[in-house]
Design a protein that fits this description.
- There is one protein chain.
- This protein is of the alpha/beta class.
- The chain has a domain at 14-40 and 89-207: Endonuclease, Chain A, CATH 3.30.870.10.
- Helix content is 46%, strand content 16%.
- It has helices at 2-12, 17-24, 45-59, 70-80, 99-103, 109-122, 173-189, 193-207, and strands spanning 29-34, 92-98, 128-133, 147-151, 157-162, 167-170.
- A six-stranded mixed beta sheet has the order 3-2-1-4-5-6, sandwiched between helices.
- A hairpin with a 5-residue loop joins β4 (147-151) and β5.
- It is globular.
- Mean pLDDT is 90; it is low at 1-11 and 58-63.
Length: 209
């Protein structure tokens, strides 16, 4: 059964995402912009489990229903990605999260409280920067789509974006350079690290306490 679950886990990985993961573990810098959900590297257990459970029941056909242990295996796999942030010589992570993400009650009140506590804790790591892109940016947000940027040890940068059914790793320098500029502009427009931390704390107390 364990081998079967592992095979299903491998098959469930979004087309193209395996290539991204192979580069993520080698990256020296990771930049991510998320407008839908908390980035995978920053997800807490209940939050991740709720997202994965929803996806398994809406995307997986009834004839290919999840097997016992599959949800737990997928959750453990997602949470395990964050190990790179605490390893020796970890990558530096710059994460920008839309304010709406903090207000979307994925998994319910307890799951969101755990998730926001997790964000506050992981933001204390010296190699992690978390900023919130506020609603006030409106149409002036230069990145209105989810994007990851990976800096390799040799200094080259890869971009990664996803659609519903596949992910794309982008190497073209002109495209990636443009995304890097947009990400930098978004960092300037987003709340500072301290302001972001205070907003996360306030939302946690006001909505999920």
């Amino acid at each position: 059964m364990q081998q079967y679950v592992e095979k299903r886990l491998e098959a469930a990985i979004l087309l193209g995402f395996g290539d991204y993961l192979a580069e993520e573990v080698k990256a020296v810098e990771i930049r991510c912009n998320q407008g839908d959900f908390v980035p995978g590297l920053l997800q807490a257990p209940r939050y991740a489990r709720a997202l994965l459970a929803a996806g398994m029941h809406t995307v997986v056909p009834a004839a290919d229903a999840p097997v016992v242990g599959e949800l737990e295996a997928r959750t453990a796999f997602r949470l395990g990605r964050a190990d790179i942030l605490a390893r020796e010589n970890p990558p530096f992570l710059w994460a920008i999260i839309e304010e709406a993400v903090l207000l979307r009650p994925i998994g319910g009140r307890e799951a969101m409280r755990e998730q926001l506590d997790h964000l506050l804790a992981i933001a204390d790591l010296p190699n992690v920067s978390i900023q919130v892109a506020p609603f006030a940016l409106a149409e002036h947000n230069p990145l209105l789509f989810n994007l990851n940027l990976l800096t390799r040890p040799d200094g080259s940068v890869l971009g990664y974006t996803e659609s519903l059914y596949s992910g794309t790793l982008v190497k073209e320098r002109a495209v990636v350079d443009g995304w890097m500029r947009s990400f930098t502009h978004l960092q300037v427009g987003a709340l500072s690290k301290l302001e972001s931390r205070e907003l996360i704390r306030r939302i946690r107390e006001e909505r999920y306490a």
